[in-house]
Amino acid sequence: MTIHGNTNGLSPSDLHALERLYRRRVPFDRLLTPELARSMAEISASTGRQVGVIADRSGHVQFVVVGDSSKLMLPDVGRVRAAQGRFRGLRLIHTHLTPEGLTRDDLVDLTRLRLDLVAAINVGKNGEPETVHYGHNVPVAPGSSESPHRTIGPLSYQALIGELVQVDPAALIAGLEQEFARVARTRVVDAKDGRAILVHVCEKHDAWRAEESLRELAELARTAGVEVVDQVLQVRDRIDPKFVMGRGKLDEIVQRSMQVDASVLIFDRNLGPAQAAAIAKAIDLKVIDRSQLILDIFAQRAESRDGKLQVELAQMKYLLPRIGQKDDSLSRLTGGIGGRGPGETVLEIGKRRARERISRLESELEKLAVQRRNRRQRRNRRDVPIVSIVGYTNAGKSTLLNALTGSETIVEDKLFATLDTRSRRIRFPEEREVVITDTVGFIRDLPVDLFAAFRATFEEAQDADLLLHVVDASDPALGEHIKTTEQLLGQLELSNVPTLLVLNKCDRVPASEVASMVRARDAVPVSAIDPSTFGPLLERLERMLFERGSGVVTRSATGSDELDLDDAIPPSITSVRLTAARPVEEAPAPRGPYFDDAAIDALIAGSGSKSAPAAAPARTRSRAR
Ligand SMILES: Nc1nc2c(ncn2[C@@H]2O[C@H](COP(=O)(O)OP(=O)(O)OP(=O)(O)O)[C@@H](O)[C@H]2O)c(=O)[nH]1
Ligand SMILES: [Mg+2]
Q1: CATH architecture of 189-377
Q2: For a pocket test of ligand 1, which of 389, 394, 442, 514 has the largest count of ligand atoms closer than 8 A to its C-beta?
Q3: Residue with CA closest to ligand 1 atom 9
Q4: Domain 380-624 in CATH: superfamily?
Q5: What interface predicted TM-score (ipTM) does this complex get?
Q6: In angstroms, how far is the first alpha carbon of the chain from the final one?
Q7: Which pLDDT tens digit goes with each residue over 274-306?
Q8: What is the pTM of this model?
Q9: Which string of DSSP letters, residue by residue, matches 531-575?
Q10: Which among 50, 360, 381, 422 could bridge 611 via Cys, Cβ 3.0 to 4.6 Å?
Q11: What is the pLDDT of residues 133-190, one digit of tens each?
């Protein structure tokens, strides 16, 4: 039976008296009992310190706390959750040594810990209870200036005990929970990962991108399977180093979380380990940052072995500095958003084991990387051009790949629909074929460790003869998306690969705007959902890939005695018709590693690589057609 708080210098008999408080019962339908009130007052008077108990709804005392003359520091009650409801199912009953109502600290605890109720017993000079104040949370409309608490008192202790004044917390709380529920009328019950409030805090000079950024965060949250119930935006002169925002705003958010019944706060920025812990401790909600959200999506979606290992490694690296933070905010993460995927185990293990796991993952991934490099070297002796489709997430890369090749890779109106990339081939007239590969979408401020994971998926793109940079022309953040993609391509050492900018989703943009964007950016317009728009794209593609002096050099096999690729290419491309790029029969659906090497080998072999033995028959067959 732990006595929490400031126990220094207490006599054994005081401690004993405090321990005995654990045996008291406080029925849920009574504010307090005379036995409890008198013993608490007595100990307070003898120690000169505030004394409190935290009782649950069945009337048991869960915590006994002792403070100093003017305040109590409450222990972490985070894991003693009420089964259901907006409140924690706990009441704080404590003493005050000066005649006063509930203090600001009392009200903050009330909100922060979502207590059912806080009661303060004023202890008189004679060491007897004199008056009682109590308070509880009330729902207020967002943005309203009304107080989120209701406080009642002073009530005469004698009147309370004599039941001249009747207070029934059970009935009170039942009514309040209904009231809160009514405010949160919009509730949808089937969200499997809880309800979240998005929080964007920025300094003034960054305010211009806040709205767009929140919109993207909402998309990410939706992709992760979280229901967004509210969004909070705060522009500050300076980001608070400890809590990011001000304490007042934090309290407001907790209040709001009760109204809309949210259990998760998702920050639209990356939080340092100490920040995350401080915030989680202060508000006692699950706190997730942008990196964690993205990691969570990857953890849910990675399918291949390589992909899974990469995600686990990224999660481990993210979590390592967070293990053993003073208020272990990770303990709130088990299960659900932020605590999913292979990295979940890290929540139970210590730093040392986590480090061991990291080095094991790294060496496994290195082995896979070596295998991939070897394959790529073998494959370099080829003459089939490779085109990689790159671009911001949700730009329509997979849709375009499907439409160009008549295949069916996953297309979803979600961010990071594609995590395990696919390759397909398309055939141009005159038997010229191209292998086209899809890639993982880019996003702003990609967590560093995830970027490392990304890197592997783009190794293949380094062999590409051409990048199709697909961008959603209808997105207001188009310019930002292009910039981010270009930056990340640079970091992936892909800046040197010839690139064609493809303005996608032109069906959503007025033609005049498309025309000016095409001119300004030397781009090709398409609508990936409408193949009748592919003409200009195919023409440009063919010109860039096959025309002499196009600047795109297709590697050809050295020492081969077969035809040079050029010989097989007629000089004219004027005959390109829309139907020209017919899908080629089945491409085996590559399953990870991110980039399925065997599948690409097979594709290339099937397309007439001079170095691959399978090439000749493939080519003969297609010629004969
Ligand atoms: N209106 C319209 N919608 C499109 C077009 N191209 C793609 N979409 C839609 O945009 C959404 C995203 O398409 P995807 O092909 O999954 O995008 P992606 O770039 O592969 O996305 P990630 O794999 O998540 O990076 C889907 O809902 C598509 O149906 C287009 O040209 N016009
Ligand atoms: Mg995709």
Answers
A1: 3-Layer(aba) Sandwich (3.40)
A2: 394
A3: 396
A4: P-loop containing nucleotide triphosphate hydrolases (3.40.50.300)
A5: 0.99
A6: 86
A7: 888 888 878 877 888 898 888 888 887 777 777
A8: 0.66
A9: GGG-HHHHHHHHHHHHSTTSS-PPP--TT--S--GGGGS-S--TT
A10: 381
A11: 999 988 776 556 778 888 998 999 998 888 878 889 988 888 888 777 665 543 333 3
